[in-house]
Amino acid sequence: MANGQKRDKPPASPGRADWLCALGGLAFMVFFFQAASGIYLSLFFQPSPADAWESIEFIERDVRLGLFSRSLHRWGAFILMSLLCLHVLRVIFRGAWRRGWLIWCSGILLFLLAAAFALTGYLLPWDFRAYWTVKTVGNWLDRLPLFAGALKWFLFSDTANGIVPVGRWFALHILVLPLLAGVCFSAHFFLARGFRPGAPRRRGRFPDGDK
Prior knowledge:
This protein is mainly alpha-helical.
């Protein structure tokens, strides 16, 4: 009888799986709502320095569900970055990054793309906060080596006629960055397929028993 009970007992789980393992999925769900609300807002936004803020006011005041969509998009950006930070910290502190360098690299690229989404989206209204953000980020880039100067020129240099490049930020925000994010999402999910979240390594072994 005892032997039968032992045979019927299910095997122990190879690792811990708790609510922290759902942070990546939650971040993807928030990204989906960001894409939906962003597509709706882009139908009414005017990407020019003279009309950007007026179009924001028009969206909030006259567009059906405009205020709700902009509030959802703005707070969604904050929630998305918070979830991604928690997700990266979980991967670091639990040592999960040791089990897949390519998954880790694609995840870091997604985090950087999310930061680029947040930056370009923050600049689009072209209000006083966007102006001082350009000044602050530009000063940071002046102190960074390698390609920081070229990046500053690409992001913040005026166009030939002296117009602030709101249209350039808008194109990055709705075309270039979503395309790059789609590629990184596909690579991240493909590499993570069949990957079981669990505890960090113990006694020189992974939770699945591989050395």
